[in-house]
Amino acid sequence: MSMKPYKKSDINKKWMQDRRDRRIMVAPEYHLIITEGEKTEPLYFQGLKNDINQKYRGRISIEINGIGQGTNTLTLLERAQQLVSAEPDKYKHVWLVYDKDDFPKDNFDNTYFRCAALSKESDSVTYHALWSNECIEYWFLLHYKHLDSALHRTEYYPKLTQCLDSKYEKNRNDIYTLLKPNTLTAIENAKSVLSNYNGMPPSQCTPGTTVFEIFEKLQNYIV
To answer: Starting at the edge strand that comes first in sequence, how are the strands of the sheet with 31-35 ordered?
Structure first.
């Protein structure tokens, strides 16, 4: 292979600029997503997992905790800590996915605050609370419109049906694919709504969601 210096006449050519300016994408860190949901959340985040893992194998893991129990959001955090302890050098980001639903206000808020505290205490793992008040369907709807008025969770279903042009059901396995083209819109809408609460606890942010945070973090790796 020739080691001659580049010709001066070649420096500004496009093929030369591409070689000189090419950026190498660093693989994402290892992420653990843990959810209490039995259907909707696992199916949705499985889409995100598949999207990233097809190029960066094994970087995203999903754990479903206590299927059907719906007892306490803090059990999500306990399970997450167990998984991190089992593989202490693996996960760099742990994402807890949970809805307000009928959980006690204190548990809903304390999971968020405890995640923040654990992240400050740890030098290697960041815990993220991906809460939705009151349900993840609110995050889905933000892909289509800016909505800052509180609704009961059942009121989101017909609105999503209208936006999707097909019936929304909690066990749809294509929901990630359908929503994906509007992800950036959802991120901006979610951040805009949260900005109105001035740091209030999650239980008082109605409606609100932080699910956008994982998509902001991983946006560059989504195929």
So the answer is: 60-64, 31-35, 93-99, 126-133, 208-209
| Residues in the chain, overall count | 223
User: Is there a contact between 208 and 130 (Cβ–Cβ < 8 Å)?
Assistant: no
d(CA 186, CA 191): 9
Measure CA 64 to chain center.
15
- What is the C-alpha to C-alpha distance for residues 185 and 180, in angstroms, rounded to an integer? 10
What does the block give as tokens for 178?
Answer: 């359908």
Name every residue whose Cβ is closer than 8 Å to that of residue 15 and which is 6 or more positions away in sequence.
none
| Per-residue DSSP letter, 8 | G
- pLDDT tens profile 128-177: 999 999 899 999 999 999 999 989 888 999 999 999 999 999 989 999 99
Give the whole-angstrom CA distance, residue 96 versus residue 91: 13
Nearest to 93 by CA among 220, 203, 215: 215
Q: pTM for the complete prediction?
A: 0.85
Which class for 152: exposed (0-12), middle (13-18), buried (19 or more C-beta within 10 A)? Answer: exposed
101-121 burial code (b ≥16 CB/10 A, e <16): eebeeeebbbbbebbeebeee
Cβ-count burial of 210 within 10 angstroms (0-12 exposed, 13-18 middle, 19+ buried)? buried
Residue 6 in tokens: 């580049």
Neighbours of 2 (CB within 10 A): 4
d(CA 159, CA 135) in angstroms, rounded, equals: 14
